[in-house]
Design brief:
Helix content: 25-40%
CATH architecture of the largest domain: 3-Layer(aba) Sandwich
Bound molecules: 1,4-dihydronicotinamide adenine dinucleotide, magnesium ion
Structural class: alpha/beta
Largest sheet: 7 strands, mixed
CATH class of the largest domain: Alpha Beta
Number of helices: 17
Radius of gyration: 24 Å
């Protein structure tokens, strides 16, 4: 099947998924979403606004208080497992949709994104029956135990860089713990979540347990985050919007978890295996077109190996296959949107203005045919950057790496930590003492040693500082979606003697 046909096959219309039914937006409005590889129309999607969010929140509340709370943990787990199997069975179609919607290479959708979606639902399916309270050894004739209960209705707002995977990170732990959800996908990439809703329906989740309401951030997203009817809001996206969400949630003291931006240091010491480090630097910044919150966008390289390292890195970056994302040989597709492309171009100008050298890239590639209208950008390396420059401090979210050289380890740690962010970090060295010293001293939620971008559903992920709060995946994710109740029972059968009567 040619890629053109693939795109045609995925051109669809979607309604909102509320209370187990497919419905138009109350306003009747829709918005269109393009295929970023060509700029052509991919899908026309119902546009949720405040009234639709109200409906979805009410449906989620009814489901929470009704069927869902009466279902056994085992049955909840079985539903999640069923969903993971359905996703697995449909992985080829879902991967093609994800690539058409987001632009990421099909090799990534098929072999990374969708398998990780399956893994997350499978992993949390297992947790449903293992969420337990404790008995506490309190003194006297008293019995004290805790109950771990779901929080209630969760509003979940997700970004466009890993559309289906972000949906899975959010939905799987929330549902395993017995919550209900109103999910708002990003306006740039709503399609995968709508297809996921079909599988949620097919798996047999009771109506209203999951509601999917695509729409814009300023309208649908803001209405959801500030809704008095939700008990928790979970957000992944920009630090700027994360702050808005925390503020609007404050009005109702809604619980909040945030997974925000990053400007991760990826550090190459002279004693590292340079070829491995080059591959790791590329994985760190060019994967998913650099649209990764934990991207290794500040590449610190020890001065003594800088020239050798940069010549290897430049040579390999030049060879990256940029083009049709449906082609299995493609290593980089388009950026997600024209807006993101322009943002990246803006940073190239900023870098030049700040005195950084553009070693490789810095412009869009020359592509043929339909792809001329796609939002492509070449792998780009800025050399001679210092950590104070804007290109070293601001999240660019593109295939653009800033190379900073260093000589002294202590000063390096200071620079690595000199950022408002703290999501992740990488280090390349053969010195295990140094590697673990670094792991302790870096202020980041994830540290990779001689590797980069490793993930597993069982391993927690989340940020320090302005990269957010809360940990997704692993057992820690359950803390975001449960609350603890402490229950006291008198075992003496005697009245409390305190007032002496
Ligand atoms: P964004 O933070 O505006 O969008 C993320 C999600 O939040 C989308 O679903 C959007 O509809 C929603 N949203 C936007 N404004 C909202 C509001 N006022 N209230 C509630 N929800 C709202 O990110 P955007 O504008 O797409 O990208 C801008 C920059 O954000 C990127 O260049 C990148 O630096 C960063 N970003 C970081 C991500 C991450 O994974 N940490 C993911 C996406 C973007
Ligand atoms: Mg925005």
């Amino acid at each position: 099947m040619s890629s053109a046909q693939q795109v045609e096959d995925t051109t669809k219309n979607y309604q909102l998924f509320i209370d187990g039914k497919w419905v138009d937006a109350e306003s009747g409005k829709t918005f269109s979403t393009p295929n970023p590889a060509t700029g052509e129309l991919l899908a026309e999607v119902a546009e949720a606004d405040k009234v639709d969010i109200d409906k979805a929140v009410s449906a989620a509340r009814r489901a929470f208080e009704g069927k869902w709370s009466k279902m056994s943990a085992r049955d909840r787990g079985r539903l999640l497992y069923k969903l993971s199997q359905l996703i697995d069975e449909h992985s080829a179609e879902l991967a093609a949709i994800e690539t058409a919607d987001n632009g990421k290479p099909i090799k990534e959708s098929l072999y990374v994104d969708i398998p990780q979606v399956v893994e997350n639902f499978e992993y949390f399916a297992g947790w449903a029956t293992k969420i337990e309270g404790e008995t506490i050894p309190v003194p006297g004739k008293m019995f004290n135990y805790t109950l771990r209960e779901p929080i209630g209705v969760c509003g979940q707002i997700i970004p466009w860089n890993f559309p289906l995977l972000m949906a899975a990170w959010k939905l799987a732990p929330a549902l395993a713990a017995g919550n209900t959800v109103v999910l708002k996908p990003a306006e740039q990439t709503p399609v995968g979540a709508m297809e996921l809703a079909k599988l949620i329906q097919e798996a047999g989740f009771p109506e209203g347990v999951v509601n999917v309401v695509p729409g814009y951030g300023e309208t649908a997203g803001a209405a959801l985050a500030g809704h008095p009817g939700i008990d928790k809001v979970a957000f992944t996206g920009s630090t700027e919007v994360g702050k808005l969400i925390a503020k609007s949630a404050a009005d109702n003291l809604t619980k909040v978890s945030l997974e925000l931006g990053g400007k991760a240091p990826n550090i190459v010491f002279a004693d590292s295996d340079l070829d491995q480090a080059v591959a790791g630097a590329m994985m760190g910044i060019f994967y998913n077109q650099g649209q990764v919150c934990c991207a290794g966008s500040r590449l610190f390289v020890e001065e003594s190996v800088k020239d050798e390292f940069l010549s290897k890195l430049s040579e390999r970056a030049e060879r990256i296959a940029v083009g049709d994302p449906m082609d299995k040989a493609t290593q980089m597709g388009p950026q997600v949107s024209e807006e993101q492309l322009n943002r990246i171009k803006g940073y190239v100008e900023i870098a030049r203005g700040e005195g950084a050298a553009v070693l490789v890239g810095g412009e869009s590639p020359k592509l043929e045919g339909a792809f001329q209208k796609g939002y492509f950008f070449r792998p780009t390396i800025f050399a001679d950057v210092n950590n104070k420059m804007r290109v070293a401090q601001e999240e660019i979210f593109g295939p653009v790496v800033s190379v900073i050289s260093f000589t002294d380890e202590e000063d390096l740690i200071k620079q690595a930590n000199d950022t408002i962010y703290g999501l992740s970090a990488g280090i390349w060295t053969q010195d295990i003492t140094r590697a673990h010293r670094f792991a302790k001293e870096i202020k980041a939620g994830v540290v990779w040693i001689n590797t980069y971008n490793m993930f597993n559903a069982a391993s927690p992920f989340g940020g320090y500082k302005q990269s957010g709060y809360g940990r997704e995946m692993g057992r820690h994710a359950l803390d975001l979606y449960t609350q603890v109740k402490s229950v006291w029972v008198d075992l003496s059968g005697r009245p409390i003697g305190w007032f002496g009567n």
